[in-house]
Amino acid sequence: MLKPFRSQAHKLVFLQIFVFIMLFFYWWLFHGMSYGFAAILGGVACVIPNLYFVNKVFSNSERTFQKIMFDFYFGEFVKLFSSAVLLILILKFTPVKLIPTITGYIGAYMSVWLVPLLILIKDK
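The structure corresponding to this sequence follows.
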């Protein structure tokens, strides 16, 4: 039952990867490799926790509604917490610039929000 949704969720994660790779090329071409690397790290801080979330929520179709809801909320909490921790660690312990790092993170994060909106606009 959850397999088609899991594959759709993985497509959204691949879209996130595509977006932060495009941001990498932008920062790299116009500002240099260190800026591009910062955008990659920001995107990774978003994508890795999101992969955990997708695998947690869509892991097993033989669950009760309560278990699905628990997995959703717990997965979302872990995703947000680990994203924050990864961003803090990246900014504290690597010599990256703040703006490209945050751009990579927000670009990857917002891509998941914008795709459903684009689908709605396309269907009208």
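The first helix runs from residue 3 to 31.
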